[in-house]
Amino acid sequence: MKQYNIVIIGGGPAGLAAALSAKEHGIDDILILERDERLGGILNQCIHNGFGLHTFKEELTGPEYAERYIDKVLAAGIPYKLNATVADISPDKEVLYVSAEEGAVTVKADAVILAMGCRERPRGALGLPGFRQAGVYTAGTAQRLMNIEGYMVGKEAVILGSGDIGLIMARRMTLAGATVKAVAELMPYSGGLKRNIVQCLDDFGIPLLLSHTVTRIHGKERVTGVTLSQVGADRKPITGTEEFYPCDTLLLSCGLLPENELSKTAGVKLDPVTGGAEVTDTLETSVPGIFSCGNVLHVHDLVDNVSKEAALAGQKAAEYVQNGCKTAEGTSIRLKGESGVRYTVPQSIVLAQADEKIVVRMRVGDVFRDKALVVYADGKELKRQKKRIMAPGEMEEVTLLRESLAPDTREIVLRVEG
Asked: Could you tell me the pTM of the whole model?
């Protein structure tokens, strides 16, 4: 069984950034395992611009952003395997992968970095009534078909869900000559970035129908239309508000789910809110030597934030290996969100290993205007950040200073306050 210092599961933006960071911090024995036929992950099908503004200080398309990291990985000589699907990770960090060339192969790692990304919530999880007719796609599937495979998925579309992929596909289909009748959103607010609402819907006159959902898909062989209904505060359709929209395509953009089946086989404890692993400030999971980063940890809004987080995971995995595969011991401070803050990442801080600056990322559960993010340490206010607007579609972050945390601190709570 071949041994590696670090094995990285996933060759998308998180996996590539983590590999480069581990290399830069002194680890040469690295292996990236990617199940697709090329590195780059989901960025390969994201041909729109808007990437890299923070990381590279310029506006790039998804493939251009990915290529920057791929070129660095190739220049650094970091080994990788394509078309290699990881089937199992054991708690002692044995990784089983399968490929057409090698068959089933097991490798042993001193440390594992989970960077598998996320998947879309499928139609079956939404409870939509109707036949299994052609013309119903997740937004990401439609994006791949159009941008990589070269197929036009439809001529008249309705989009359910206002996540970023759905918003971007509204613009993409319009530019390709299709008519997007409406984007319907169950919640009273959009799940996407404000800039995408403006650039993908407002600029093209596409209506965003908040507090609406699909209550019927018409057609048997192919979609012929959908019925949209308003929903009340309980998110249930209101009788008498039904409206029929003729269309041949329905795109579903109803949320992303971290791809954590492998994490479960490794015994990693998952957060019930994020769907990703519970991690410390070093992004180490509940299993020593297994780290998590990117969309498999929690769904991000910007790929720049994925790269930044993954770089930290690569650095900390390298330090773990160089420290004799030992996790620093010490007092653990629990983090949690309340009063509008849905979750925090990390979920705990170990002061003995913490960096001078600790970045805490989170999402809020509603739209808040002219409020503040307030941090409490054992009930005492530690920090207050005023915010003009906070929305579920955009991540928030707070930087804590290690020196501001008393050694006997037990709990840090983040809240939205007026």
From this structure: 0.93
